[in-house]
Structure formats: structure tokens, C-alpha cells
Amino acid sequence: MRIYLVQHGEATSREENPQRPLSDKGASDVRKIGDFLYEKSELCISEVLHSGKLRAEQSAELFARCLNGVYSAAPDLNPNDDPALWSAHLAAREKDVMIVGHLPHISRLAALLLTGDSNQAPVAFQNAAVVCLERDAESTWHLQWMLTPDLLG
């Protein structure tokens, strides 16, 4: 099983809009990554989950549109939620899933899955970047790859 962890695209500032929707650059970066994943890979992601916050929902919608999947809000994906909750959710899953979330939660979840310690920092997340983790037969998670908007130019 693979999970694709995403920090939402760049958002506007609170001063611009208190709801913090995606900025033009944020939406463009998410589309760029989503289009690349659709065209250049064999991803089979039918479900894109997000925190419910506007910037994460907009990012999830753009990824789902690019990957021909569906998107929906899921519990326990807010910035300060306990990553152990999603570690437990993922242990019971068999299908690949994309999770669009926020720092520090998404970073702490990756750390927990990869090292067993959510206070480590094995992955430096960036807005709109996708980090692919794969679970092996022994239920151990491994980093497969990371794709950032900067890599695509």
C-alpha cells in the first residue's frame, strides 16, 4: 500500500483573506504536480482526503480532478492533531490514498510512520509537494519519492 502525503498549496495571508484560500501560485503548483502525476506515472489514487480547511480542500479538489479521483474531508488532519490517529487509520487500510494536510501534522505523521517518533523530521515538506510512502509486507513504511513544484520548473 502507498500513501501520498501532501502539504496543501500556498495559501493567501490571513490579512488578504481570513479563510486562507489557495493563492494563484498555490493553485498553479498543485495543478502542475497533479498533471505531472497523471501524465508521467501509474498512480492509482481514487481517494484524496483533506482536513476540511479551505486551502486543503481546494488542493484536494485539484489533485482529485487531475487524477480522476474523488475528494472528501476526513477527521484528525488538522495542524495540531495527533498523528497516531492516522497511523492507526492507515494500518487498517489496503487501498492507496492521498492525504492533503498541514504542518506540523503532515510532517509529524510522516516521521511517525518512518521512524516511530513523531518528533523526528525525516522529510522537509513544501507547499504542494507530494511525498510517497510505501508499506511493505512487514507493515514497515519506506520513503519512495518526493516531488516538489520546483523540480518541474
Describe the structure.
The chain is of the alpha/beta class. The chain has a domain at 2-11 and 19-79 and 87-102: Phosphoglycerate mutase-like (Rossmann fold). 33% of the residues lie in helices and 21% in strands. The protein has helices at 24-40, 54-67, 83-91, 105-115, and strands at residues 2-7, 47-50, 70-73, 97-101, 130-135, 141-147. A 6-stranded mixed beta sheet has the order 3-2-4-1-5-6, with helices on both faces. The longest helix is centred in the first third of the chain and has 17 residues, at 24-40. The termini are far apart.
| Low-pLDDT ranges | none
CATH class of the domain at 2-11 and 19-79 and 87-102: Alpha Beta
Tally of separate helices:
4
Average the pLDDT over all residues and give the rounded result. 96
Helical content band: 25-40%
Strand order of the largest sheet: 3-2-4-1-5-6
Radius of gyration over all CA atoms, rounded: 14 Å
- Provide the structure class: alpha/beta
Q: Largest sheet, if any?
A: 6 strands, mixed
CATH fold-type name of the domain at 2-11 and 19-79 and 87-102: Rossmann fold
The sequence of SSEs as H and E is EHEHEHEHEE
User: What is the number of strand segments?
Assistant: 6
